[in-house]
């Protein structure tokens, strides 16, 4: 420390030796900000890293850049209007987001939904699941330098988007669920077109698998990288494909069935390694399972007689006083909806428990010890949507 001039701030001088003349070299941790621009994921995330050389010593996910206050907006919207807000937090899973809200409201009302609406909802939920998974199956290799797979993934997405857009009129935010059922009946011939679309995607899905799954570069970048153990998963509440890739055998469609899942053979895909490669495998295999479930739903809908697709509602819909918690197996994991009503036409409180929030918080445990070069591979395999975090 040199003596500063009178009135000046203290000044520190550090002498650093370089080259052959350096006797002792001391390394210092460096603080590195990744973001809030797109680092490698979907949305605006900031990571505050402390790095020691090329390795990450500590990581802190910093969220809130996309916060819209949807949970407070619910409190001044009636039960028809909140659906349009709820389907946007995970923009890849809009139908699943709507579903949790209407299930909670219907439970509070003690309302029984027509059987055709139950099976149609199940079908649309599985188609939406495949759409979500295809996006990550295409974008994850893109983040590792593989350009071609995303074109294949979007080809399959467009095939399914065609039938989803036909039935709902929306490409991303479907707004097709209603309290008591669905907006309107299935268009004539729609089940045939859905069967054809599912068959086409199933036939071409191996193209993506051949491009990526066995690729030696992809395997080298993902196998044994970003390992997440079961204890950490349970501690942070991680769910969905990420948890199942670490051997957590949990899927609400099988374990606490809702909609028509108690009548369907839901196959739960798990792996034990818990690395980036396992997470990709689970997502790929889960997409295949959802295509099979979609076919089963179509077959059941063909057998059902014609009938109503929704319940008639009063002009002003009020939910009885009380509270309930409804949760669903959304594409990215467990989505929970805690609804509190005071008997009015708007919720007193509607709290969302989204899958992505837990999936991104666990990064503080996963990233330390890994190379900075592997950070992108780990982030891409965590399958979160930032809007699903910043509600």
Which structural class fits the helix and strand makeup? Answer: alpha+beta
Q: Strand count, sense and closure of the main sheet?
A: 3 strands, antiparallel
Shape designation: globular
Radius of gyration using CA atoms only:
24 Å
Give a count of the beta strands, DSSP E runs of length 2 or more. 8
Strand content: 5-15%
Uncertain spans, ≥5 residues at pLDDT below 50? Answer: 11-26
- Average predicted confidence as pLDDT: 89
Whole-Å distance between the termini? 49 Å
| SSE order | EEEHHHHHEEHHHHHHEEEHHHH
Major sheet: order of its strands? 1-2-3
Count of separate DSSP helical elements: 15
Helical content (DSSP H or I, runs of 4+): 40-55%
Descriptors for this entry?
alpha+beta; three-stranded antiparallel beta sheet; transport; 391 residues; membrane; NADH_UbQ_OxRdtase_49kDa_CS
Q: What does this protein look like?
A:
NDH-1 is composed of 14 different subunits. Subunits NuoB, C, D, E, F, and G constitute the peripheral sector of the complex. By secondary structure, this protein is of the alpha+beta class. The protein has helices spanning 70-73, 82-86, 94-109, 115-143, 148-168, 190-212, 216-222, 230-236, 241-244, 252-255, 276-303, 355-361, 363-366, 375-380, 386-389; strands spanning 30-34, 46-52, 55-62, 177-178, 181-182, 322-330, 333-341, 349-353. Strands 1-2-3 form a three-stranded antiparallel beta sheet. Strands 6-7-8 form a three-stranded antiparallel beta sheet. Strands 4-5 form a two-stranded antiparallel ribbon. The longest helix has 29 residues, at 115-143. The chain starts with 29 loop residues before the first strand and ends with a helix. The relative contact order is 0.18. Residues 11-26 have low confidence and may be disordered.
